[in-house]
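For reproducibility, we list the full input for the manganese (II) ion complex.
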Amino acid sequence: MAIGQFAYASNGNRFLAVGALDSEPFALSGVPFDGAVTNRPGARFAPQEIRRASLMLCDGLHPYFGVGLEGLLGDAGDMRLPNASPLAEVRDAISQQADALMANHHCVFLGGDHSVTLPLLRALHAQHGPVALIHFDAHCDTWTDHFGEPSGHGTWTYEALQEGLVVPESTIQIGLRSSGDRAAREYVRDQGGLIYTARDLRGKDGAGLQEIVLAIQQRVGGRPCYLTLDIDCLDPAFAPGTGTPEPAGMSSSQVMTFLEELAPLNFVGMDCVEVAPAYDHAELTSTAAATFVWTYLCGQAAKRKPQ
Ligand code: MN
Ligand code: MN
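The corresponding predicted structure, in tokenized form, follows.
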């Protein structure tokens, strides 16, 4: 057997029922790795579940952006990963496969736990240099260690800043609310970036988020920008199927407002991570993830439409 040819990573299910990736401008790839979690595993099953949930969305145009993805998106399947090997080896395999995709496509990745974002940013750095980062999450992911291990799903933002993969003042975190020591929770702000906690967002949506949207647009400017969406930014009422749920989180509507309003930024890629389908009772989490990924892609596809 070839490396990573696990049953969950090798069925023929494709996002929006699009074709296998060919020369389409947008590519989607699964990153079915969950070996770096601190709590409940299961995100390795997310790529296939998010694809399945996406099938409901394939019969029309996006309600806000007015475009569909026909002919624009191809599905590259899931990455082949050595998931019983040391994390550094897994990450090298992710970087290599991402690098090959990014050379020819604007890519969206379905995690996997959040540790996969670091190798994706490394691949992106090779293409674009340091990028702006918009990071939705309940957690800061700037811990300097993973319960005594050097790296895990809660250290990647710290590592990305240390490695110079992202521009500190254009690093923006949205939805934070978990416990943690001050040094970790405030790290991005201490480096010059922006943090909007879940508390900062309470009672705000639609036009009520406009001030924050403008501040984010100003910080990012025209820089290449990467979006990483940890589904646990959502309240567990909207996304119960995740490894480290944190109550009192964002609503689907708030995340949608940000995705719609920030779409004009110079995005160069996205991932959606930490969906763990087994903890969900009604496919809520994979449906939310599919809708957010579809919205991101339609927002980028709309810019290609002749005006
Ligand atoms: Mn995270
Ligand atoms: Mn999280």
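The chain has a mean pLDDT of 96. Residues 137-139, 230, 232, 244, 274 surround manganese (II) ion (ligand 2) (CB under 6 Å). Both points were considered when choosing residues for closer inspection.
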